[in-house]
Design a protein that fits this description.
Distance between the termini of chain A: 63 Å
Oligomer: homodimer
Shape of chain A: elongated
CATH class of the largest domain in chain A: Alpha Beta
CATH superfamily of the largest domain in chain A: Response regulator
Order of helices and strands of chain A: HHHHEHEHEHEEHEHEHEHEHEHEE
Strand order of the largest sheet of chain A: 2-1-3-4-5-11
Number of helices of chain A: 13
Strand content of chain A: 5-15%
Largest sheet of chain A: 6 strands, parallel
DNA sequence: AACGGTCATTGGAGCGTTCAAATCAGTCTT
DNA sequence: AAGACTGATTTGAACGCTCCAATGACCGTT
């Protein structure tokens, strides 16, 4: 059976091509009676609009590009994986699709943008892992390509829409929870200074430690590379202090699980003897009973797509070609959408 | 600057549209001198073929669909993540792109196939997580849609191309390694019988235990749901046996890490006192020093795409429309490509 | 009864590409 | 020297869709 086209549906419903097209894309333009007749024909012939033909005409592909990472560390990899999963599900519900690509660095990523834009007419991109002076956002903004980032534009004056999870709020909540449980000596086990995400998470702990007048001793603030091994040795050093902390807030589950391992090795019970709270709520944390700060990845993905939707609406009002110079005046530049900063959720388990 | 088209390139090189098209798709048809001239024009105008237009004409989109999982367990999720990453990279190098979609079950997945095929003209699919009587493969095969699976067609007589990793070979290698190290009482900690992948991994251990005449006592073969907690309790039960095993081969890293945790809790050193070997080579395994069987995911992805390439070549010789009935005779049905069964690699670390 | 106005619908054109057939040299046959 | 053949290139059509301008039909107003 040959594929159904607008033409064949039109013949079947005794109307014109354009009316069928309108029934699909602008139902308010077509008479109710005609509408039902057309819709019947559509289902009967099992018609599906042909994506490529539509793209060719409208310059909209309903495709959103997302980079998949070459493999960072265990924790972040899993986070991206879950984010992508949510993104795919949300986009799908909205008639859009996620197209994957890889790149070794930001420069190569920009080159891929070029390919994907002129070759596949991608509508937009979702970036992640933003950092200060990110050339990717500059590249896209300059060319007026719609995009949003999962991750705020650290430092630089971001003129684009972004969605992020408030890391400081997460560690603050963790620390607050520990304070409420009676802890006064709460340490922070994070990454070396200089990583934006790490510094942010550290600041939440530091804020509350100051505000609550906690007993912060030298050695209560460690910064090591992410990993179970490094986390374990750093935790060991804390426990060996003359006055050891009674709780440790960590910048990642890897570090927290390292601390957890060290505790159990010493015969200490996480939670009962020394509290530990991780970050990212990995499945491992769930299994061993490690409290952790969970990022609302599904909400983040939804927010990204909602924002993208708005950007696409305001940017190209009604199929206007990208002829630069003369943008339709009534739409205006409209400025970037309001950023979204989501609060993470503290998942309390046995460890704290 | 308006986008370059075949037309504009043609004018610039003083040839016709079609010659430029040929220079790209069938260089042997065009005169060497003309070729260089056209190529110069292409680079000068920064021309990129327009994907949608080509798809509209040729019915080939260069797009391959892959399903991203709604989140299984930690281990399998990571495996899929790494596989997708490799798949994306390999496809990209070959001029193809990976398009993501999600589905709650096999039936819904088939519905998506329909959408993706007639709407987006997807060229092919890569499936994973195959099982006996998989309706997805039946659906695709019946409609003659090109696809390969990562995972063999368990039980059913698969008439499609597939790539898989030999799980039995992995556990066999692990067991062999332990035998070589002098172990005689080697237990297996796996999943309940009935899961195809789990049974396969168990069989490798069972094979070698028989062949090497190992001392397999009651309780040396456990089957529990995947997870750290379940693994730990199952391992505890083994260690409590009157004659405990000196080594444990596991069906997953989750189980192995559970066993590992139980060992350290008892003051036993993994490797020195009781050997433990996991499966899937997770990052956690790497960090804690757990030996594990690594799946060659990058090779698997490459094999999938190579196979897909072959299927696409033989199936639609030269842009032939899918008019069923009259397939070009010289190509013939050609049958499914030879399956690829990859051997996993045992990564030996401190634990065994 | 002629006029402007809204609503529903229509036909033609064009998006950028490839296919199929046609053209036009030049070379080899007989 | 006329025909058949090869190789390089061109032209028109088509893929399925949406944009745009135009067409009637029907309404109320002057």
């Amino acid at each position: 059976m040959a594929r159904a086209t607008l033409e064949s549906v039109a013949r079947h419903a005794a109307v014109s091509r354009q009316t069928v097209s309108n029934a699909l894309n602008a139902p308010h333009l077509v008479h109710p009676d005609t509408l039902t007749r057309v819709r019947a024909a559509i289902t009967e012939l099992n018609y599906r609009p042909h994506h490529a033909a539509r793209t060719l005409r409208t310059r909209r592909s309903q495709l959103v590009g997302a980079r998949i990472e070459p493999w960072r560390d265990g924790v972040n990899g899993a986070v991206l994986d879950r984010f992508l999963q949510s993104l795919t599900a949300r986009a799908q519900a909205d008639g859009q699709r996620i197209l994957l690509f890889t790149a070794d660095d930001d420069e190569q990523e920009c080159a891929h943008y070029e390919d994907l834009l002129s070759g596949l007419d991608l509508d937009a991109f979702v970036l992640h892992g933003t950092h200060a002076d990110d050339r990717r956002t500059a590249w896209l903004a300059q060319r007026r390509v719609p995009f949003v980032t999962f991750g705020r534009p650290w430092g630089s004056t971001g003129t684009h829409g972004w969605v992020d999870v408030d890391g400081a709020e997460g560690t603050r909540a963790a620390t607050r929870h520990l304070v409420a449980a009676g802890h006064r000596r709460i340490a922070f086990l994070g990454w070396p200074e200089g990583s934006e995400v790490g510094d942010d998470r550290r600041s939440g702990w530091a804020d509350l430690a100051l505000a609550a007048g906690l007993e912060v001793r030298p050695g209560y603030d460690a910064g090591v590379a992410d990993g179970l091994g490094t986390g374990r040795t750093a935790a060991a050093a804390m426990l060996d202090l003359e006055v050891a902390p009674t709780a440790i807030v960590c910048a990642s589950d890897s570090l927290a699980l390292g601390a957890w391992t060290e505790l159990t090795a010493r015969g200490l019970r996480p939670g009962a003897d020394v509290a530990v709270i991780g970050f990212d709520d990995s499945t491992t944390a769930a299994v061993v009973g490690l409290s952790s700060v969970a990022q609302p990845l599904d909400d983040a993905a939804a927010a990204c797509l909602r924002m993208l939707h708005d950007v696409l609406e305001t940017d190209r009002p009604r199929g206007v070609r990208g002829d630069d110079a003369d943008r339709s005046p009534e739409a205006g530049p409209a400025g970037p959408p309001d950023p979204v900063l989501l609060s993470p959720r503290l998942v309390v388990r046995a460890s704290g």
